[in-house]
Design a protein that fits this description.
The complex is a heterodimer of chains A (391) and B (462).
Chain A (H helix, E strand, L loop, with lengths): L4 H12 L28 E8 L6 E11 L12 E8 L8 E7 L13 E9 L20 E5 L4 E2 L6 E8 L6 H7 L23 E9 L11 E11 L16 E7 L4 H5 L5 H9 L5 H17 L2 H12 L4 E4 L16 H9 L38
Antiparallel strand pairs in A: 1-2, 2-9, 3-4, 3-10, 4-5, 5-6, 7-8, 8-9, 10-11, 10-12
Helix pairs in contact in A: 5-6
Chain B lengths: L14 H11 L5 H17 L20 H21 L8 H17 L2 H17 L4 H13 L3 H14 L4 H13 L3 H14 L3 H13 L3 H18 L3 H17 L3 H14 L4 H13 L3 H14 L3 H13 L3 H20 L6 H10 L4 H12 L5 H13 L3 H13 L8 H13 L3 H14 L11
Classes of the chains: A alpha+beta (391), B mainly alpha (462).
């Protein structure tokens, strides 16, 4: 049985890290180097979240990126070349009707004091004239469009006080005994089985990531006819080659979408990780065509896990595709109503994908308590913190 | 959990164009490899848009030096990451991912600093990963990178084959197998592997490897164009700025090697615009400045580099520039520092600087015997045009002209020796002159001048 095999392979490769090319000197006569394949942490989306803040009824949209940031890192990895977007469909066609765009200025590299890096959040704003297209242009910051600019690692609020924004390094909110999952399901053939005495280990214990959190009135996202919205996050890179060294250039005006993320693990696990071109096709599409274009891929991967084609197809149709978080903006419940940071996604996915054969990875909570109020995600681990060795 | 975008498939030229260019450019390669290489060449020469980095005036060069605070911050960050993951290796004895990441971080550190110790630690970490999971391909591929960096080419080749056997569909495994084949001089087999990578992931990753292959074949214009194609794909795919900047540095480096200093300057400027402070670009700008006899600027740039990162080859380059500037006394400490680091690495069992040692003894220390010793040790690891040239030049320095000529004959007879670097041809001309082959010496000198009209100007030993 292979459960989440693709997830495992994909994530293993990502976590393996990239050698990169910074500082390389290729030598013509002696030895050649070339960039390694993996390596775009800036645009690498980790998890998307959408939930209702029970305290005020507003909708919270969040996305994490830039994985494996170690404690003590204060320099942001997010930069002006990447456009981060929340896309919201409120008509049920899985095409964005409203977007929120987030851009960073250049990181304050080498600055020992509080980073001067800033973010600009534009929206929520309706997507005019772009129905059915990927949003690949910056929103115009015209009158009536909410625009918030300020420092990272700070909660920012608009003048009306009904929009809050945070972007910065936090604890990585994902919790899973990743090694246990891999070993249990026999990923990477030939690995020994996990000893029965093994205690769960939260693989992401002690690690940080970049987190963007936006809280907005539900009315700014929903339609008049429905309380249900569909949410996904995307990253796009500027198509501009040059970046000025003298200014906080936000890159070019046009962007190419390089990744999207809605439901947990769909992109990672169910769209063939062993086929980079297919993965790219998925990443460059919107969710409207997911069923048409990618259902067969997802069913094939699920069948490897549960050996039940009919069950897999039903699971795909009812829960897993299109790759969006479906949220009732009147309910503060968690997954599958959107996703809250505290929702134990891996247990839910393992259970559903394996048709109940595997119910848990043994890690039920995050290594740091989530906050009860905005920005909800736990503060970044500090270098002097004692990291709990287990779960 | 996390995934990284990969490249989209580029449009390829029609079959007729591919076949025509293949017969001209791929040196007899057949099958899928020839088609793939042809596609690269055609895409570069026919279908690809012009590379945007235009020629620039010398005055327009961007300030390349890395601010000290940036370098210090980057070094501190790297140290913190390594310390963090090193401390986690033993947290979970079943965890093969953490030592793999640690290994890759240490490889990156080694490339940045040139410290052999980092490669040794990387290897140690990767072996822990493979002890815990022998089939973990990312660790296997990273270990191949370590072997290549330490110039253990036969070991690298075997390890790369094992990685491909573990997962033949993994482009990274195929890529490092191609790298190992390229370094050991099996260009046809390298081409076949790169063709597979290009087919699976037609990206900057693939095109830059094809560019290296074209350069190894002596097709410098083709290699420059292929790096341009890699850059173009990188732009379209949203590849990180560091990778795109690296491509521009390669284009500049190869333009410099052809004597096209204006184009080189344009590419270096573009690389530095993309990633301010790019050290590889800074290194090459410093070399260009010395070639232009702007020695003070060159010295300043190299001083900034060695202050940021103690790479011994940069110490030697600084010494070389100072010699060229007529300041041999100032050069001596830098040459001494470089030599000590080269020898320390060799004593530690690292073969990485054998090639540098051969060149250093031949050209700086003027010690032919030592040059021959290190050149032979380098040649024992791989028999390529570069290593044969190094031995021939060392033998020339040692006064062993007949053997030098025979060695150079072998270098130029290799498939990759049909259109060698101008400096190889220059060495050949001097060696053939010593053995009385005046016509051949003249021919080599003429070819060197065609390959690079400015080949006698300053250049860095690499």
């Amino acid at each position: 049985m292979r459960i989440l095999n693709s997830l495992a392979v994909r994530a293993c490769a990502a976590f393996a890290g990239f050698v990169g090319v910074g500082g390389l000197v290729a030598s013509a006569a002696d030895h050649r180097d070339a960039p390694n394949l993996i390596g775009d942490p800036q645009a690498d989306l980790l998890d998307a979240f959408a939930f209702v803040n029970a305290a005020n009824g507003r909708v919270v949209l969040a996305v994490t990126c830039c994985p494996f940031i170690v404690p003590g890192t204060t320099q942001s990895f997010a930069g002006p070349e990447v456009l981060y977007q929340f896309k919201i469909d409120n008509t049920g066609d899985n095409v964005e009707d409203v977007v929120v765009q987030v851009q960073f200025t250049k990181p304050a590299i080498g600055t020992p004091t509080v980073p001067a890096q800033q973010i600009t959040v534009v929206g929520p704003a309706p997507v005019k004239g772009k129905k059915g297209r990927l949003t690949d242009k910056l929103l115009k910051q015209s009158a009536g469009v909410n625009v918030i600019t300020g420092n990272v690692n700070t909660t920012l609020t608009n003048t009306a006080g009904d929009v809050r924004v945070f972007a910065g390094i936090t604890d990585d909110p994902f919790f899973v005994d990743f090694i246990q999952v891999l070993r249990t399901i026999g990923v990477q053939g030939g690995t020994p089985p996990v000893p029965a005495t093994r205690q769960p280990v939260d693989f992401f214990n002690g690690l940080n990531c970049e987190t963007i959190v936006v809280e907005v009135p539900a009315a700014s996202l929903k339609s008049a006819d429905s309380n249900t919205i569909r949410v996904w996050a995307t990253t796009s890179r500027s198509t501009s080659t040059k970046r000025s060294s003298k200014s906080d250039d936000k890159g070019g005006k046009s962007f190419v979408q390089v990744e999207r993320d809605g439901l947990p693990v769909i992109n990672t696990a169910l769209i063939r990780a062993d086929n980079g071109a297919r993965k790219d096709e998925f990443n460059r599409q919107g969710p409207a065509t997911d069923i048409e274009l990618f259902k067969a891929d997802a069913v094939a991967e699920l069948v490897k896990i549960n050996n039940d084609a009919a069950y897999s197809e039903t699971l795909i149709d009812t829960l897993l595709l299109p790759d969006v978080l479906v949220l009732d903006v009147t309910s503060a419940a968690g997954f599958p109503n959107g996703r809250r940071p505290e929702d134990d996604i891996i247990d839910a996915v393992l259970n559903a994908a394996s048709k109940g054969a595997v119910t848990t990875d043994g890690v039920q909570t995050n290594d740091k308590p989530f906050l009860t109020d905005f920005p909800f995600f736990a503060a970044a681990h500090a270098p002097t913190e004692t990291i709990t060795p287990r779960n | 959990v996390s995934s990284s975008p990969r490249a989209a498939r580029p449009s390829l030229p029609h079959a007729g164009e591919r076949a025509r260019v293949a017969s001209r450019s791929s040196g007899g390669a057949t099958g899928v490899a020839a088609r793939a290489l042809a596609a690269v060449v055609v895409a570069c020469t026919l279908g690809g848009r012009p590379v945007t980095a235009g020629a620039a005036t010398p005055q327009s060069a961007a300030a390349p030096a890395t601010p000290r605070s940036d370098a210090a911050a980057a070094a501190a960050q790297a140290d913190a990451e390594i310390a963090f993951f090193a401390a986690r290796v033993d947290r979970d004895p079943a965890d093969f991912l953490t030592p793999t990441r640690l290994g890759n971080l240490l490889i990156r550190q080694a490339r940045r600093t040139g410290e052999a110790e980092s490669y040794a630690r990387a290897e140690q970490a990767l072996r822990v990963a493979l002890d815990r999971n022998a089939g973990h391909v990312p660790a296997m591929a990273a270990l191949v990178t370590v072997h290549l960096a330490r110039h253990r080419f036969p070991v690298a080749l075997a390890a790369a084959r094992a990685a491909v056997e573990a997962d033949g569909a993994d482009p990274e495994a195929r890529g490092v197998l191609g790298d190992a084949l390229l370094e050991t001089g099996d260009l046809a087999a390298a081409e076949a592997e790169y063709a597979r990578v290009l087919d699976a992931v037609p990206s900057l990753f693939a095109y830059s490897r094809m560019a290296n292959l074209l350069h190894a074949r002596g097709d410098t214009p083709g290699a420059i164009a292929a790096f341009g194609k890699a850059l173009e794909r990188g732009e379209a795919d949203g590849a990180p700025a560091e990778d795109r900047s690296w491509c521009l540095v390669q284009m500049g480096r190869l333009s410099f090697a052809r004597g096209d200093w204006g184009a080189a300057e344009g590419h270096f400027n573009a690389a530095l615009e993309l990633v301010p402070g790019n050290r590889a670009a800074t290194d090459h700008v410093a070399e260009l400045r010395a070639a232009q006899a702007r020695f003070d600027e060159s010295v300043s740039l190299y001083e900034s580099l060695v202050a940021a990162v103690p790479r011994p080859e940069w110490s030697q380059a600084l010494g070389d520039v100072l010699v060229a500037a007529g300041r041999p006394e100032a050069a001596r400490p830098w040459h001494d520092k470089a030599l000590q680091a080269y020898l320390a690495a060799a004593r530690a069992g690292d073969a990485h600087y054998f090639h540098h040692l051969a060149g250093f003894y031949a050209d700086v220390a003027k010690d032919g015997t030592e040059a021959v010793k290190w050149a032979r040790r380098d040649l024992a690891l791989r028999r390529t045009v570069a290593t044969l040239d190094a031995l021939a030049w060392a033998l020339h320095a040692a006064g062993e002209f007949a053997e030098a000529a025979a060695t150079m004959d072998e270098a130029l007879a290799r498939p990759a020796g049909a259109a060698p670097d101008a400096h190889v041809l220059y060495h050949a001309s001097l060696i053939y002159f010593k053995v009385g082959a005046a016509a051949r010496a003249k021919d080599c000198l003429q070819r060197a001048a065609i390959a690079n009209p400015k080949f006698r100007d300053f250049h860095v030993h690499r």
